[in-house]
Amino acid sequence: MTAPSQQKLKVHGPVVVTGNRLSDGAVVYRGAIGWTARLSEASVVSNAQAAKDLLVLASKDDAAVGAYVAPVEINNGQIEPGNLRERIRLAGPTFDLPASFGI
Amino acid sequence: MPLVKNGAVVEDRFTRVLDDAAIVDDVPVIMPAARLLADVGDLAGRRGATGVLWPNDRDISQLAPHLDRLALVALDFPNFRDGRAYSQARILRERYNYRGELRATGQVLRDQFLLLHRAGFDSFEVSKPADASAFAETIARYSVVYQPADAGTPAALRRRNASSKAGARVHLREHDA
Amino acid sequence: MYVYDDFDRTLVDERVNEFRDQVARRLSGELTEDEFKPLRLMNGVYLQLHAYMLRVAIPYGTLSSEQLRTLAHIARRYDRDYGHFTTRQNLQFNWIKLSDLPDVMADLAKAGLHGMQTSGNCVRNVTTDQWGGVAPDEIEDPRIWAEILRQHSTMHPEFTYLPRKFKIAITAAAHDRAAVRVHDIGLRLHKNGAGESGFEVVVGGGLGRTPFVGKTIKPFLPKRDLLSYVEAILRVYNQYGRRDNIYKARIKILVHEMGAEKFGAEVDAEWQNIKDGALAIDLAFIADIASRFRYPKYENLANEPPALTQVRSRNSRFDTWFRNSVTPHKQRGYAIVTLSLKPEGAPPGDATSEQMDAIASLADRYSFSEIRVAHEQNLVLPHVAQRDLPVLWEQLEKIGVATPNVGLVSDIIACPGLDYCSLANTRSIPVAQELTRRFKNLGTQRELGRLHINISGCINACGHHHVGHIGILGVEKNGQEFFQITLGGRADEKAELGCLLGPAVPYAEVADVIEDVVAAYVELRDQPNELFVDTVKRIGVEPFKERVYAAR
Questions:
Q1: What ipTM is given for this predicted complex?
Q2: Where in chain C are the domains?
């Protein structure tokens, strides 16, 4: 859960490259043909060189900002976030948003 | 790198010289701070204008005794987020009454023009050509300011106080008028 | 209220135009992210985990009902129907689109609102006592000085690219509700032996990675010299503050490394050059700024009217709320009412647009259209006639902001944490939510007395954990959320940093540990009215540690 900018690029297991879309800040992942909002379409790599290559390519595409490498898990062929931070980025805050409290 | 002066892109008449390069007597030069301080006696009789590039981590008061011999002081922004030279500029203008050319050099971007101008800079080595041509428009973006900065700009808080009935706006000094 | 004139409005409108141009240049690729980031930050725009976040400045925590309605409108139209009030008296929207932001700023500007000075390495929104202008114990309204500093620091040509952010807080009361000793500059307005009022100037306080309680470098600064002296401090800091390491760039590190005495001497030397210049403040200038503040036309009312006392005696729930959330006012017959944004199970400091609209209407009817934001992340109606309290209470109950827990254990300060924030190591809101459930019994809460729990999800300390009576700091250990607990911190005039209780505990155990700490306090206090923080002061953390960790 260390901020990505402070991470050294150590890759143990499958990773993706993620960032936030420039226009609205939405969470996006680097896929085969650009950024995608779906984790299922993300390119998964599992060694440092491949991750670095993907990151460099992604960082050149200004449609998203703050690109970094994030861990994922592959469960039954599904790509899932690899830590709490990434689970929250994908699914939102871990509690109900205030509007649902209602009046 | 385009030079903006008096609100327009102009040719730079100054040449930068390094620590050990020969100085041609009648050519306007900008020399490093250390060389200026070391050779200050030899510079008295020069025919060309003399300028200095002063680093942003060196005490600007060391320059004070030599200001009357200088046609230009260039202050450095190693990156645009390093704001030390804003203080140096104001001290030169307001404390030492330096009236020669005060040049911003380094990473000088459009969105800093107004602050630079208000801190007392009157020439700008602009990093991007598109920014240079937008200078006049950018500098005119604000018609009001709050602070009494830059000896040439009236004290905004006080100015408004003095003539609040007129809903006084403090107009920025016309650039270098 | 400070009332904007043409001058102030023009500046905000011009700022909107500038920002619209900057966003357009960013979206077109003309500006890189590195170039754009400081520009958006200067307008309060962050990029968080899920989206952009906009922090709107609420100078010295004072809002008009029209402004609060505007915030509700922004939440409804551009965000997800709620906003989050922060520990610096600002408001954050968590789900804003960059492409919408120029329009958001334009809508805010119509109500005199903006995001200036809510981020970036400039002088931030100046904070003060949320009861400024109405507190019985103040010597004068500190907001006038906050406004003078706001104007002086807005788009300052010299101090917009400081080494790091710069926070100023002011108090004018005997009891410091503005935490001035943990700010970059803390100002305490007080009277000297001759009866003149002036400022004690404290520098180099702050929380974060390296917390310090600030040091006094000027016990008494005449009012005329406030701006020149602050300018001298900023100038010394701008030149000598460290820029090589972001964690050492705050003024507190400079003051610490130089020593307060030497730092003070540098400031004095600089100040001598400028103190009699354009920044010297005269009485006419103070009067001009003060004249832009509108004060209510209070009625001539008696204290404790029958309309109040009768309801108090027959309705114990109302009486409980009254004793907890209503505070004496300067003006006879009036009261200050705190609205708790900490109901059981809710994220601290959040308000929905419906609540904001409703509070704005209640402010129109009962508080001269004025609202305050408290740094404890609650709201305040600052001018309520005592006779109106029962009917106001009923209305507040309906919208869920009358929980009588102000200042009690469930009135928790928490940063947004890992649920929103890209800097966070751990969550903090769910910890706060769980604690409010554990301590939901109001009788127990009252019996515990004043007890502040502050939670930060990382070392940056937005939740002010160092100065919580109980501080909770989230840290990461091997990818898991752990929490360090400190005891005995406080942010008031006796400011102190908390002491570490013991090893960090995992997420699942935090609430248990806090319950044990509180149980230990009940056992250890020497009498029922000894406050938690006083018990810790008297006996230290060891007895707590023994009890809490014995079973673990």
A1: 0.94
A2: 6-110, 142-291, 306-398, 413-550
Distance, in Å, from the CA atom of B109 to the CA atom of B128, rounded to the nearest integer, reads 7
Strands (E), C331-403: 334-339, 350-352, 370-373, 379-385
CA atoms of B133 and C66, how far apart (whole Å): 41
Q: Say if CB C380 and CB C374 are below 8 A apart.
A: yes
Burial tier of C34 (Cβ tally within 10 Å: 0-12, 13-18, 19+): exposed
Cα dihedral sign, C59-C65-C71-C75: positive
Pairing status of strand B123-125 against strand B101-106: parallel
Contact C268, C219 (CB under 8 A): no
Residues of chain C with pLDDT under 70: none
User: In the structure, do chain A and chain B come into contact, i.e. share 3 or more CB pairs under 8 Å?
Assistant: no
Contacts 24+ apart (CB under 8 A), C117-120: C117/C42, C117/C57, C117/C150, C117/C153, C117/C154, C118/C44, C118/C55, C118/C56, C118/C57, C118/C88, C118/C90, C119/C41, C119/C42, C119/C43, C119/C44, C119/C45, C119/C46, C119/C55, C119/C165, C120/C38, C120/C41, C120/C42, C120/C160, C120/C165
Domain ranges of chain A: 11-90
Q: Nearest C-alpha of chain C: how many angstroms from B33?
A: 18
CB contact, 8 Å: A13 with chain C?
A: no
d(CA B139, CA B141): 6
Amino acid making up residue C142? P
CB contacts of C11 in chain B (<8 Å) are: 142, 144-146
How does strand B50-54 pair with strand B29-32? parallel
How do residues B84-132 score in pLDDT, each as one tens digit?
Answer: 999 999 999 999 999 999 999 999 999 999 999 999 999 999 999 999 9
**pLDDT given for residue B74 in this prediction:** 98
Of the candidates C219, C186, C228, the one whose C-alpha atom is nearest the C-alpha of residue C203 is C186
Q: Is C142 helix (H, G, I), strand (E, B) or coil?
A: coil
CA separation (Å) from C510 to A83, A90, C485, C518?
A: 20, 26, 9, 12
The CATH code of the domain at C142-291 is 3.30.413.10
Structure tokens at B136: 């006049």
d(CA C160, CA C117) in angstroms, rounded, equals 9
| Token pair recorded at residue C70 | 């505007």
- 3-state SS, residue C496: strand
> Is the pLDDT score of B163 beyond 80?
no
Taking contacts as CB-CB distances below 8 angstroms, the residues of chain A near C425 are 1-2
Q: In CATH, which of 3.40.225.10, 3.30.413.10, 3.90.1150.10, 3.40.50.1860 is domain C413-550?
A: 3.30.413.10
**pLDDT band at residue A8, thresholds of 50, 70 and 90?**
low
For C7, the closest of B94, B148, B167 (CB atoms) is B167
Rg (CA), chain C: 23
> How many CB atoms within 10 Å of residue B95?
16
The superfamily (CATH) of domain B3-141 is Aldolase class I (3.20.20.70)
The topology (CATH level 3) of C306-398 is Sulfite Reductase Hemoprotein; domain 2 (3.90.480)
DSSP tag of B95: I
Q: Does A85 touch chain C (CB under 8 A)?
A: yes
- Which DSSP state fits C186? E
C97 chain-A contacts, CB cut-off 8 A? 23-25
C6-110 CATH, one of 3.90.480.20, 3.10.330.10, 1.20.120.140, 3.30.70.100: 3.90.480.20
Examine chains C and B and say if they touch (3+ CB pairs below 8 A): yes
- C6-110 with C306-398: one CATH topology? yes
DSSP tag of B92: I
C159-199: pLDDT as tens digits: 999 999 999 999 999 999 999 999 999 999 999 999 999 99
Contact predicate B125/B108, CB 8 Å: yes
